[in-house]
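Form P-L/3: holo structure prediction, ligand copper (II) ion.
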Amino acid sequence: MATLTDVIDRPSGESGLWSWITTVDHKRIGVLYGVTAFIFLLLGGIEAGIIRLQLSVPDSTLVSADTFNQMFTMHGTTMIFLVIMPLSASFFNFVIPLAIGARDVAFPRLNAFSYWVFLFGGLLLNASFLTNQAPDAGWFSYANLTEKPFSANQGLDYWALGLQVLGVSSLAAAFNFIVTIVNMRAPGMSLMRMPLFVWMTLVTSILLVLAFPVITVGLIELTFDRNFGTNFFVPEGGGDPILWQHLFWVFGHPEVYILILPAMGIVSEVLPTFSRKPLFGYPVVVFSGVVIGIMGWAVWSHHMFTVGLGPVAVTVFMITTMLIAVPTGVKIFNWIGTLWGGQIDLKTAMLFALGFVALFIVGGLSGVSHAVAPSDNQQQDTYYIVAHIHYVLFGGALFGIFAGVYYWFPKLTGKLFHEGLGKLHFWLYFIGMNVTFFPMHYLGLNGMPRRIYTYASEFGWDGLNLLASLGYLVLFVGTLIFMVNILISLRKEPDAGHDPWDAPGLEWSIASPPPSYNFAKIPEVEGLDHYWIVKRRAAAEGRPVTEPEAYVDPSTIHMPDPSYWPLVTAIGVLVLAAGMLFDTGWDYIRFPIPFIGGIICFIGIIAWANEPPAKEHAGGDHHAEDGHGMAHHPATATAAVMERPAGAAGVTVRLLCSNCGNQLSSSFRFCPYCGGAVESPADPDHQEG
Amino acid sequence: MAHHTEISHHAPEEEHPTTTGINNRKLLMWVFLSSDCLFFGSLIATYMVYRGQSLVGPYPVDIIDVPITTISTFVLLCSSFAMVRALAATNEDRQGAIIFWLLMTAFLGAIFIGFQVYEFNLFKTEGLRIDTNLFGTTFFTLTGFHGAHVTLGIVWLLGLAWVAKKGRVGPKTALDVELAGLYWHFVDIVWIVIFTLLYLIGGFDTGPAGDPSLVPHSITGFLGLI
Ligand code: HEM
Ligand SMILES: [Cu+2]
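OUTPUT (holo model):
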């Protein structure tokens, strides 16, 4: 294989399609995640539209029962696995290295691999539409409806295999972010100085690492049942369908925290910034988040209150479920405490964060109401649950994510969002969301079951259903406005500057958009809300910070090279999984294609491990392929610093003291601010070591 | 130049300090193994839940052969010892010994897999297939995935031995060997759990009529066999 990597040059180049395909830059991967997940959001939204259109009037015959089943199954699966999770991953990617003062994640190529596997998993799942076999057993696909006799076509194979592939992606990403957060923090950033979003990403990643293998096993068992005649969930063979429910919800409940914790992290960044106050009770918020992450493992059977687990089990899970509402409530009070007495600035990001708090409270209250098992007996499998999940996932997770989009967009693009359109988007979402989902509480309590494709008029559900469908239209328009807003903002809006919100995080101290290397000099973190500390002190000393960290020539900083192999390996994973859909019926090798996928993976991994650095710096450079974030903070050396290239004009060389970051005249031999020795900038390579 | 390239991508992070001082790749391996714990944990839980629930035979008592698997278990344990030697040789830069012990580890692992292939085939001829009953379903799934882990480990070790043959494994790259070792020991420990539960304790389960939940019964059965 060394021969293969000798023949094929490592890709290089910074623009064009190819550069995106081979990129390992966390910022670009974040963009890829975000754009892809947004497209899936539109797809899931269309599915939701079909559901709402069908239900808007009684006895509707718009779609068949079969199609309806496919729609709600794909809607739920898409929104959870292809929208909320990858949108969160998009923020992990873009924000985490910036927020901890690193140059990239710990394993940049593994990161690219995660993205490609996610993309392929999403495509595999949706490819089921092409063969008209979309999965149709609901997002939690209860056994034994999922067994061959009841779901004869391959829909559930697509579902199980697609989720397996997505699991690979999530696990790889979670491994990466745990290592990154634990190991790549800038000097001075102790655990209790980590921004809350970083904390929540860490907890989420740990939950992913521990929860996904459980569903992996469940999906393997399902796939074996459907393809190899095993009896895991087949009562005739002695199997127990309830085992699936346990496996699914042992994964499923931590999963709902995987969905909400990143949004909570985002909101905990946005609220302090726009209240001009540090987060109220930071350690308590961190602690609550960790407790939620731990207790989230002890509540899964609240999804199974009506299964017949017996009074003891039901009581235990009832109590744990009520208890988990405590740390959740604590966080809400901390957010409100943050607002209290703050100078509130109602930018769009802030509106979405406030919307998050309000709507999440509603969802939390309905959650507590079905934590009470006797009352849940009335609510289980009704629209009341649909209302709950949408208040926590739409009003919660998605609003949090949009708060993040409006918050970090200027950092990502260097442009401000159009505030007017942003506020319009917020209000359309806020109103549309409530009009759509609030009536569902009533519908559910009036007995309307989930997942029915139509209903008779005598039940009295007509009006509220129509109202909910009208709410969908408002959300639809809101989404259009958001897309228009992006296009307009990218073209027309003024430059954002590096720190439009006067924010506390490290990421705001560098230029917007961030240079490829993020930080020319790895910052020395002085406390929680580091950048506020720096700015306030500078202002007190009469030299306010108005400029981002100056631009340096990127070629003086070694960054990981692009690579083909993450993509190749991801293709291998896809072939391996998709190959399971082709049963040859032959005696010994019923499934030959997965072997081909395995071989592609093997080649990809070997080549990956043996990949040489790109040609340009194969010679003089001796830096790490992966994990270089901490490496470059020379103690006394000075880097050659340039102004950002202005058009075709050349670059001006200035000096910065790399010890304290202050600007120097080229005649200095010692830094007048910190006393550090200044070396000649002529030989940057020499100083890197 | 070529030589330089070699070094630059072979020992990625060694030189770089991390926040905790733990190497990135090592931390990655630990996180992966913790995830794998849950993977095997779920498979083992499935086996335990369905213990004694098979509706038709063959039942464990009919076909599980504890003495034979005791031998293969011993072989796997020895392979962990060989792995330890391989790492020691790496740290001491004894090139010949590195290759010898890496190959020895892989070889012992391969013997273990050989036993497993033999056992699977034997069970098949005795009428136990993955779709026969719940015992077959859970037994083949759990031990099969374990076997796949061992096989992957063998491929990894052979790859390392190949690199070692080119003289590229030594104290500076000891981490490469250490990571393979972590994985190998983990898979070994998982097997100890599986062996205890599926063979020593569950290996004497009878059909629904018997009482599979009585551990003492199983132990006397084991003693009786010896
Ligand atoms: C205050 C905390 C919460 C409590 C006490 C709570 C409680 C519950 C209970 C008891 C159920 C089962 C209801 C039933 O099926 O009869 C449920 C369902 C659900 N919850 Fe929550 N929940 C809380 C927060 C959340 C959050 C934060 C999320 C996600 C972000 C979430 C997502 C879901 C989902 C997706 C379901 C429905 C699963 C399904 O049946 O499809 N919940 N919740
Ligand atoms: Cu739950």
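COMMENT: Residues A 253, 256, 299, 302-303 surround copper (II) ion (ligand 2) (CB under 6 Å).
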